[in-house]
Amino acid sequence: MMRLWGRAIVRRRKVLCLWLLLLGFALVTLALSDLLNRDRVHSHQNPVPPRRPLQGIPNDLEVIVDSRDPALELGVDLAPLKSLQEDQLLFVPSMQGTKNPQQRKGTYKVLLPGANKDTRTPAPPTHGEMGKAVQLEEREVESSLVQKYGFNEVVSEKISLHRRLPEARHPECFGEQYSESLPSTSVVICFHDEAWSTLLRTVHSVLDTAPKQYLQEVLLVDDMSQHGHLKSVLSEYVSHLDGVRLIRSTKRLGVGGCRTLGAARAAGEVLVFMDSHCECQKGWLEPLLERVAQDRTRVVSPIMDVIDWQTFQYNATQWPVRGVFDWRLDFYWESKPELQEKDPDSAVRPVQSPVLGGGVVAIDRHFFQSVGAYDPGMLLWGEEQIELSIRVWSCGGSLEVVPCSRVAHLDHHHLPYSFPDDELIQRNKIRVADTWMDAYRKIFYRRDTLAHFIRQSESPNITERLRLKRSLGCRNFHWYLTTVYPQLYIPQDRPALSGELYNVGTGSCADYPRGQGPKGGAMNIAPCSGTGSQHCELNSELEVRWGPMGALCLDAKDERAVLSPCSTHRPTSSRLQWTFIKLSGQLVHQQSQLCLEVLKEGGLPQSSPKEVKTGGLFLRPCTHHPRQQWHFEQLVAPKGA
Length: 641
Ligand code: UDP
Ligand code: MN
Prior knowledge:
Strand content: 15-25%
CATH superfamily of the domain at 183-410: Spore Coat Polysaccharide Biosynthesis Protein SpsA, Chain A
Bound molecules: uridine-5'-diphosphate, manganese (II) ion
Helix content: 25-40%
CATH topology of the domain at 183-410: Spore Coat Polysaccharide Biosynthesis Protein SpsA, Chain A
Mean pLDDT: 82
Number of strands: 28
């Protein structure tokens, strides 16, 4: 009986526990539903776009790619995300932070590491000092950002991420018809420590201007940036943008390597490599795709307009324009409006270009891979575009600038990053010279003696590139010079008639001050540089050709020695002809029969016009004064590199 009584009590306790459990469950459910309801009400007032979760980032959003992965070269899918390298960045969603990120302007407050470290508040300035202090602080912030980025980031921050550029296309462009079915495109944007505003303006400008049906994706490739804002904040931001993917490299790859990585991960038929500080003009993509679709070996560039690094003002580039390089292997855009043909079609007709700049290039993905991508031996920055250009031309493709496509590129005041190696650019130039220039490379080494000396002590490992060149059956540099770039003057560099023009009387060298530009200006005398920057040559036409392009000639203007554009006619004008008398060292101007002399400041005759009172190189009656004695000093032995 007692046992029965006991069992009844146990059963009742169990029932009680069950009731209590049920009650607890009901309470929790109630609280949760209230919470959810509140959220729903809130989101109704302030709609939130569907978010992709930040933890457990999906593979298509962000992958840490180890570029050493052999799968890359094979184009095989890479291993999924291993770990997300986070930074110490504080990421604070602001009060209005739940809006669509495209409307962002101050949506996120980015607190850079260390920004809030010092909690001591300085003594408040006196009333009058306040305005000045604020102004000073602003200016300091501005100049430190210019230092950091190479452009005025304060101004850039104030400009909308969706600003529209003023129309700069030729009216003829609006009548152009493009094919209905153009190839799909991956826009590959590599960046290393790019500023937030410029990077995002680039991305939005592509999204705002490229037709959806052709834009497969925007592929952001982080070349191991260090700046905090490019880590989780960027991942979060990109996660809201349709059609934008972000991959990260675990190794600093440099421009070419980073682009090759992007290409290996891209899905579009055509690749557009774009710098991380560009703004696209309406309708920029279609004309490029049309040209590539017509011929898959065509590599094309828009007209590159210029964004001013100080004001962010947009400056349209004059047509016709094409890319060229000089004998120091430096790149230039050559804009020659005077060459505009009378033919009305010429305003919309693409022009072939010896090289293209790196800012924006469109290339068929398969052609890019088969022609050898970017040279993996190139270090960080520089020359990769010249290398690609010479290779494309020599190995069966072509390059052109398409005038109805315009993209603006931010021209930096200085590069925003430093290199671990001072001679990095020379090393990249050496690769170009040794792989592609055959015997013509000597002309380069004479004009870049640093490259020459590096080359003497080490050889570049270009075996793979030479093998590629052979297997693709590429043409030689002579073909390239005569067929693609016949305008480039080919120096003769005759022994004893080329090198630095050394003046016996002063122990200095003839010099053309930098910054006077390609149109010419007054010659001067300066310490001999020994770098090849003062290289000139007296050729068989009796011209003294100056500079790495060899397009400027020693000329006389009144009594002054100046540089002028060389004549394209043969025989050349006698005004540009000189005789070098080896025995006396005199350099005699043919037309006037006067001799080249160095005059010190104040050493001029009274009769001289006011503006030539400063010292420099002049034409004077011939004497045997040491200041009229010259010789061409060769810095690189005639055998060359
Ligand atoms: N870049 C990169 N890795 C580097 C150096 C540059 O990804 O090591 C990126 C850079 O952010 C830019 C592009 O490559 O988007 C070209 O570099 P930059 O604009 O500095 O060259 P420039 O236009 O001055 O020739
Ligand atoms: Mn750039």
